[in-house]
Amino acid sequence: MGRRPKYLTAEARQAAAREHSRRYAQSERGKTARAARNAQACTQRREFNNRVLGLHMPEGMSCYARPLLRASFAFEPDPELSLGLWAEPYAFILPGTSIRPSLDSGDGVWASPEARLSIYHYCRIMDEGPARAEGWRSDDLDLAAVEAQIKDEIAARRDAWVAARDGGVGSADAYALEVYLHWGARIIAMLGDEWELRKHGVEAYVAARSQRRLPWQIMRVSMFAMLNK
User: What are the start-end ranges of the E strands in 99-198?
Assistant: First the structure.
């Protein structure tokens, strides 16, 4: 004779399985296993957030890259506001002494020193984005060569970013360093994200541009959404 089944119905088996899972989750063994899984997932997320095109990024850079700083459209995007972000070696430099007084002469968040400094970086990204997209839409693009060039630029920007973060400035210039760190991190993240899109093929990249899904296009939408609030 066969052994009598412990559970006579599917519902009973499911209820027993749920009870077993509940007891295991509350046991020391279950708690230890859950903690290990959570720690592994956290590590994987952190490693993902700290890598751009496979290059390791410093801890905390992603926290600077995510928030979009307001850019003052009423302020002239003077090259003296570059902060060193637009020419190698991308090292942090303070705004020119001749332009500093005008940074503090406005009222409101859209006329703050941070917003006035930011307009130059916003405009440079919006100028270079379409030009880069035109070049990257070519079927004959040498992907290996372009990726090597991008990685070199990202690595140089990363090293300059770390040096600026660790170097520090006087309290009167701290706002300029914060703007540098925000836009420096954002430029790295956006460049990496855009190249990842291009690596999926020229058709996917062109489609993303037509759908306004390239990083600089998304940034523009986000900026005007803040402006219209």
Answer: none
**CA–CA separation, 118 and 183 (whole Å):** 8
H/E element, 55: strand 55-56
CB burial of residue 139 (10 Å; 0-12, 13-18, 19+)? exposed
**Does the global pTM surpass 0.85?**
no
Long-range CB pairs of 217-226 (<8 Å, 24+ gap) are 217/129, 219/68, 219/122, 219/125, 219/126, 219/186, 219/190, 220/126, 222/68, 223/68, 223/70, 223/71, 223/122, 226/68, 226/70
How far apart CA 59 and CA 46 sit, in angstroms, is: 9
pLDDT per position as a tens digit, 69-92? 999 999 999 999 999 999 999 999
Structure tokens at 49: 């957030």
Phi and psi torsions of 55, nearest 5°:
-90, 135
Q: Where are the domains of the chain?
A: 10-49, 61-227
* The residue type at 165: R
Question: Could you read off the pLDDT of 108-148 as tens digits, one per residue?
Answer: 899 999 999 999 999 999 999 999 999 999 999 999 999 99
Q: Which residue has the tokens 């859209």?
A: 110
